[in-house]
């Protein structure tokens, strides 16, 4: 093998990795379509209003007897669209440090999220309530 090829290969690989890292750093926010303040309710959950605030990658959510703070990331190009919530603080201590995997859809000013319990390493496949997931319906606040 030509010894001139090896250094060139290493440089190309390093530049490729740096380019990937740069993309991660320059787009730390959740997609624009889910940014902002949303109010709504949980399907088949405790009665009462929920508020969801997404600002960049920061997440604040509160509802009947519960609250969550953390970060959010999403993939708007998948079908269904994917969303991940990393819990940094919340009213349920065993969820701190865990990730809730979910899916979402937007129709007009309505955001519907189906998410599994934090720590479950599977993503829901539908917007129907089941044993492991919760479904929320939010309306965008202007």
CATH class: Mainly Beta
Radius of gyration over C-alpha positions, nearest whole angstrom = 19 Å
Shape: globular
Beta-strand share of residues: 35-45%
Unreliable stretches, pLDDT < 50, 5 or more residues?
5-27
**CATH fold title:** Lipocalin
The structure class reads: alpha+beta
What is the element string, with H for helices and E for strands?
HEEEEEEEE
Number of domains: 1
Q: Judging by the overall fold, what is the CATH architecture? A: Beta Barrel
* Strand line-up across the major sheet: 1-2-3-4-5-6-7-8
Mean pLDDT: 85
CA-CA gap between termini: 63 Å
Number of strands: 8
Largest sheet: 8 strands, antiparallel, barrel
> How many distinct helices?
1
What helical percentage do the residues reach?
10-25%
Write a compact overview of the structure shown.
This protein has 142 residues and is an alpha+beta fold. The chain is 15% helix and 44% strand. Strands 1-2-3-4-5-6-7-8 form an 8-stranded antiparallel barrel.
Write up what this structure looks like.
The protein has one domain (32-140): Lipocalin. The chain has 142 residues and is α+β, with helices and mostly antiparallel strands. A hairpin with a 5-residue loop joins strand 4 and strand 5 (81-90). It has an 8-stranded antiparallel beta barrel with strand order 1-2-3-4-5-6-7-8. It starts with a helix and ends with a strand. Helices cover 15% and strands 44% of the residues. The chain is built from 1 helix and 8 strands; from the N terminus they run αββββββββ. Residues 5-27 have low confidence and may be disordered.
